[in-house]
Amino acid sequence: MYKIVHLPKEQWKDQIIPIRYTTEEYYDVAMERQEAGFTVRIEKKRFETPVTHGPEEYDFPDKLYAEYWTGACAWGVVEEGRLVAAIETAPETWSNRLRVTELWVDPAYQKRGIGHGLMETAKEQARLERRRAIILETQSCNVNAIGFYLHEGFTLIGMDTCCYANNDLQRKEVRLELGWFPKRKARLKPDEVEIRKEEPDDYRKTERMTQLAFWNKYNQGCDEHLLVRKLRQIEEYLPEISRIAVKDGEVIGAIMYSKAWVQDGETRHEVAAFGPLCVDPKWQGCGVGEMLLKETMKLAAEAGYPGIVIFGEPDYYPRVGFKTCDQFGITTAEGKNFDAFMGIALDEQRFSQIHGKFYESDAFENLPKEEVEALNEELEPLRKQYFPAQWN
User: Fold this and answer.
1) Cis status of the peptide bond prior to 276, with omega within 30 of 0
2) Given this model, what pLDDT does residue 184 score?
3) C-alpha dihedral sign at 107, 113, 119, 125
4) Burial class (CB in 10 A: 0-12, 13-18, 19+), 192
5) Do 313 and 202 fall within a single domain?
6) pLDDT tens digit string along 34-47?
């Protein structure tokens, strides 16, 4: 089993990627203009003699962290200090796609599943960053690479018939663009999901689901699953408001509430807080989080809480009515405000009168690494990996 590791820019910048291949086949690209438009035909054919392509053909050899790729990040396999496989990605921010800029496995290490592992790393990055597609470039004569990409779920999305030279069509080396699109499940209907209180028999399932939801998202690994376990043990926990989402007997989402407060001089105002709110990666984007929020916000209001204050993703919660806490006159305990610090009024009149510094249970900070690792082993270890969107 080969370990795929992050290749830091400061160490691997300008590392040459010696991509070389020999092929006996090619995809012949033929384009014809017709009165009604154009006809494009792509058909696999054989060369009369094998053709080899290597880095010496080009003025700009493949290398990691080239200056023209903004925000690039690379991973690879290193054996005895030598790079034997690598993948590099770069975000295409304007279109919310992720481009694979380099993918290479040393011929001596091919056919061992390393290429698949590298591509899975790129797909995980795309999922964590919520990219709508992964795209990459290959050549019409690189038949083995095309076969690999098709096996990985990519499909043809375009071509450039004069990318490398004006006679690419004649040379049988046409740039092909391939794309991979994450499979999205349809939004679930309320009658397809059971929103209910968590029972002791659910505890392990909820912790495992939470681990999967946050793994490698903000840090290498995560500790939110330990937080779920600790919250159940504290006085501030609100099990009467907290809920899990269950489908076909499996826990696919959870929201955990606890008491918090806003301190205004000598006056202490009690509010509700939640965290974590999470959904199994297989069911993200299907409306499960919104179901949990709507159900529990109603319960929190009925329980008499004037509002909810959270730390959360600023690109998600405003869609369901949350606003940054500076609009309520509430700051963190340190007196700060930022986009991820948000709140929502459940009773407009009462919440409008609450101002001051926000405090929550110490359980959110009491997550020792040794306890996290022990829980990881108990639930089944997952592979830690660096991704560029992580906080550190």
Assistant:
1) yes
2) 85
3) negative
4) middle
5) yes
6) 999 999 999 999 99
* Domain assignment of residue 318, yes or no: yes
- What the block records as the tokens of 188 is 């679930």
Is pLDDT above 80 for 57?
Answer: no
Tens digits of residue pLDDT in 76-112 = 999 999 999 999 999 999 999 999 999 999 999 999 9
Q: CA–CA separation, 76 vs 102, rounded Å?
A: 11
Name the domain count of the chain: 2
Q: What's the pLDDT tens digit per position in 224-235? A: 999 999 999 999
Exposed/middle/buried for residue 266 (C-beta within 10 Å: 0-12, 13-18, 19+) = exposed
Instruction: Identify the CA nearest to 285 among candidates 130, 96, 126, 94.
Output: 130
pLDDT tens per residue across span 271-284: 999 999 999 999 99
Q: In terms of Cα–Cα distance, which of 215, 248, 177, 159 is closest to 375? A: 215
What confidence score (pLDDT) does residue 83 get?
97
Question: Among residues 91, 157, 100, 156, which one has the least CA distance to residue 130?
Answer: 91
Whichever domain contains 121, its CATH number is 3.40.630.30
Residue carrying the six token digits 């964590």? 128
Element (DSSP H or E) covering residue 214: helix 203-214
| Contact assessment for residue 124 and residue 88, using Cβ atoms and an 8 Å cutoff | no
- Domain shared by 227 and 364, yes or no: yes
DSSP letter at 222 equals -
Is 136 in the same domain as 202?
no
Q: What is the mean pLDDT of residues 359-368?
A: 96
Q: Which domain holds residue 311?
A: 190-379
Instruction: Show the CA angle centred on residue 81, arms to residues 79 and 87, nearest 5°.
Output: 65
